[in-house]
Hints:
alpha+beta, Methylamine Dehydrogenase, Chain H, flat, 5-stranded antiparallel beta sheet
Amino acid sequence: MKSISKIIPFILFFAFADCFAQSNDLHYEQVATAQGLSQLSVKSIVQDYQGFMWFCTDDGLNRFDGYSCKVYSYNPNDTNGIQNNLITSICEDGYKNLWVGTQGGGLYKYNREKDKFIFFDLDSAGVSKNTDLVYTLYSKGKYLWIGTREGGIVKLNLETEKVENYINSSNGLKTNFVTNICSDHNGNIWVGTSNEGLFKFSNVENKFPDIYNYFEKTQIFSATIDSDGSAWISTPNEIKKLNPKFGVVKTYSYFEKVDEKLKPGTVHYVYADTIRKTIWAAASGNLLKYDSAKDEFLPFEIDNVNIFAKSILRTLYFSNDQNILWVGSISDGAYKIDLSQSRFYNFLNDSHIGVTAPGMAILEDKEGYFWTGTFGSGLFRLDSNKNIIKAFHQIDLSKKIYVYCLMEDNEGNIWYGTVLNGLFKYDKKTKTTTAYNTQNSKLNSRGISYLYQDKEKNIWAGTHGVGLFKYNKETDDFANTNNNDELGYQISAKGITCIYNDSRGNLWIATDSKGIDKIDTKTGRFINYSNNNENGLSHNYVTTIKEDSKNNLWLGTYGGGLNKFNYETESFTYYTTNEGLPNNTVYAIEEDNSGELWISTNNGISRFNPVKEIFTNFSTQDGLAYKEFVQNAAYKTIAGEIIFGSINGFISFDPAKFSDRNIDYKIVTTGFTIGNKPVPIGNDSKLEKNIIVADKLSLNYLDNVFEFEFAALNFDMQRSLKYAYKLENFDDNWIITTPDKRFATYTNLDPGEYNFKVKVVDRSGNFSNNEASIFLTISPPFWLTWWFNLVVGSLIALGLFSIYKYRINRILELERLRVKIASDLHDEVGSTLTKVSMRAQMLEMQINGEKESKNLKRIAEQAREAVSTMQDIVWAIDSRNDGLNNLIYKMKDIAFSVLTEKNIKVNFSVSGLDSDEKLNLETRQNLYLILKESVHNIMKHSDATEVNISITNTDKFLTMIIADNGKRYEQKEHHTGQGLRNIEMRAKKIKAICEFKNENGFIVIVKAPPIS
């Protein structure tokens, strides 16, 4: 053991008390040709009421939605569009109209509904001098003030479109070249000129009087009025402040500053942020910000870097509701600077200590000091006063030290492991350092990967490839668990990444290749968990271990995401990029005071809600200086702040400041295409209004592929937002999409009415209350329209009615024919047969011969039978007898007339029949003939005394039963001849079932289809 007795002093490495405060951790983005900007010289900027940003360039006007630009420029085929690409100025009036000035092309008014710029002819409106060279625009109240290069200033009444021209000959304006227009809180208009200074307009005199002329013979680039009413003016070499009330002028010659950062250059634009009471100035090589405490302009830097060192800044614009400063330059496009202080703070990085040093380890000791280990720059102690960094100190170890891990033991000693120099213990009481390395200790490893003191006060040291060591306080040395049988266990792998003692008394040892080991310190039971078994670890490289306040154990892996251990089932639940984690390499885990987990990864930081299982991810767009972090470099301070080590220094933040905000998102539909082609706007087009203001669309069935594009015009958080869209009556659920896929495509929709809606989804998965929506109607082909269906339906109905009428007429004709045939048969044939029968009878009476008499008698009987048969046929044919009542009457007539002559009692019953119901000829005729045949059989061959006839109609059958009580032996012969075959034949004709039974007589059963 080698003890370093020499006291190593703390040498001040950097001692500037407010160095952390100067690192403002702001986020900025450049808008250039990559975003579709037509040209890099941005001369004027404005944000319209919808939220779009507009940039004036020397090659057209650009509308920016945060992702890309839409360019409006000169088109030879469009006589109504902008006729000059040199766009000098733009402003929006109180009526939400955009006005654009050009250099040589005059003034234009934007028709938002038609997405066109309409030329406003100032000369025709009464202006006496050429005003094509519009230099600046300003709107106040109901007036638009137009500053020109040659025509003085023009005041346009926005309600009447009447103009007044103020030129140097009559209205007190000493020059016709107007460079800038602004107003004060009293509504007074101030005008800057190219070489005659600043003028204030008198509403009473309706001119620019001499007494309100300031800075005569001075070139004014720009002017602005602050919240106190003072005017700030930029001139070629200085900034002037004017108090109009007292006439006091103060000059700020910023280029005379000794500071090298303050490069000489012209101030092109000055801007007063009246809400935050800040003055900004756009200069050559610098963005300047007024420091009221020092009463001077200082260069505005982002993370101690002047990003505008090589730029000539031309104009400024402030988005008040989003706290964003827009900067236009001459050759670098536009810049968006989010002035909202980042919630992430980067410290101990290259800008602080001079070199890029990954933050490997950090802790807060019992005295409230922070100790940090860096990769190559050694160990630092940071003095803290109410968690505000005061200074940086470094322990001088006389050589370059790569500190990898830190620990404070229960006695207040600081232990720090290195990559190449072994382990050190710093005694804060004696201010001595003890080294444990391969030369003086059994800790035979130069690379220390992790340090930990368990609940039993045992100190453990993990190494890079040599295994796990346990500290013996009595011997002041370490024992290797791999070759010490007294420990009772051997770790699965020699590469140790993390050590943790959970609330159940288990000691967990994470490795870089064999998963994780669990040791029950009470029983000595040893278990290894890996990804070799089902429900095991997601990856065998375990990077970190964390137990939360609810005693859940969480593991980070190198490539397998986040793992949660289930103590009951001894299994793991995985959370990867599929569940929302930004990257599957988890470096460190910390829990905040609300129970949420903060996870550092290879792709930013993630906040995880274990209850909802929702990840909220943060990257460089959210203010992170870096998105790649360091394994196990994490700490939660006493105050609740969380610190993660990154590839360049440390990043700290207060989780309490990350509560979800309720924001009024400016969501707009920015594009619409059919068949991947833009749709022109016009009264005869399917897009009657510009899609950014349209609320309804009418398409036809041929428009089978169309697409909406959308954007949230909240530029301060745009990159972290997602979108949710839904086409009502088509989509069942909201469809989530990312900023790089801000479009919704639909194909082959059925004709009908739909409603397209799009909302914003914040980083926590919350949907915005407001939305953009467009009502959509898809018209059907003509053959599916109501009028076509009505016409076709009417034609079909007419055709069916005609067919019906035709069939009715045919039926009537047939009925008339049947009546005629029946009448003719009755009148002619019936009469003739009757005459034959009568004459045969007369001859029979006159002839005495027995043989001749017998033949004549036979002729007379056959004639009578023919008459009877013919009467039945006539009755059946006659349509007047189609009614069911006629059938029943006919049946009763034949039954009673035939059987009663033989003294046979007849019982006739009918049930379930409607007497008005009609039967077809065939059914009526065959039912009657079946009954007639049965009656005649009974009369001729039965010795019956009683016959029961019943006709019943049900849902299943029309049943006719004819039962006599004749003797059985007498029935045998007469029921086996032609008569029964006739009955069966007639039953088949009407699709009836026929049965014959000998039960106390003879029974005929006929079951025909029911009468409905």
